[in-house]
């Protein structure tokens, strides 16, 4: 996923790279869970404690709406490259919907931790 993010700036150091790998894995894991929930229940449900934590962390780091869009693009491109023989417009729409619902839930909780 990081390969598809616009991080060509040579000033990005190894610490940022390590953090990005952690968040890359976290984003994929959370989106996978969202996709499973969407398929089974027709909606994405995130435990309140996880959601509040995700929201406050995104708020703390100044994540903006544009960042969610870049991450969505990177996620979809990564899945497409990982399983090209399975990739279809339907799969793209399903993964996109799962990500969009998860992102909406996170955005709703993006505020100063109490």
CATH architecture descriptor name: Orthogonal Bundle
Low-confidence stretches: 1-16
Task: Supply the helix-strand structural class.
Answer: mainly alpha
Q: SSE order, as H and E?
A: HHHH
Beta-strand content bin: under 5%
Count of discrete alpha- or pi-helical segments spanning 4 or more residues: 4
CATH topology: Globin-like
Measured between the Cα atoms of the first and last residue, the distance is: 32 Å
Shape: globular
Radius of gyration: 15 Å
How much helix is in the residues?
55-70%
Biggest pleated-sheet summary? none
Q: Report the strand count.
A: 0
> What is the CATH superfamily?
Globins
- Under CATH at level 1, the class stands as Mainly Alpha
Total domain count: 1
Tell me, rounded to a whole number, the average pLDDT: 76
